[in-house]
Amino acid sequence: MIGLALSLLWVLMLMLMGPLNMLPHYLAVSMITLLLFGLDKRRALTGARRVPEALLHGFELLGGWLGAFLGAQMFRHKVRKVEFMTRLYGITALHFLGYGGWLILA
């Protein structure tokens, strides 16, 4: 739930203070990440080959952390994996720090 609140705060910050040209990028990468979470959950349930966690984290790092939080909540996927969620929060913190630095320097 904290992740969802952070995600909504991020989108609000982008809309109010940030470069609006970044918003489509974040939304597109987040949608792909959300779909990857759904695909991985389906594969986990059917015993098929899984989506590598490195790929999920890679898309989070590219800006899909919003989709990752939504996917984790919607599909109840990866939420109990402490190491995975710790990395997701770390990636989200990097995005917030980067955005904060951009605001200071702009």
From TrEMBL:
Keywords: Membrane, Transmembrane, Transmembrane helix. InterPro entries: Cold_shock_CspA, DUF1294. The chain crosses the membrane at residues 54-72, 84-105. This is DUF1294 domain-containing protein. It comes from Ferrimonas gelatinilytica.
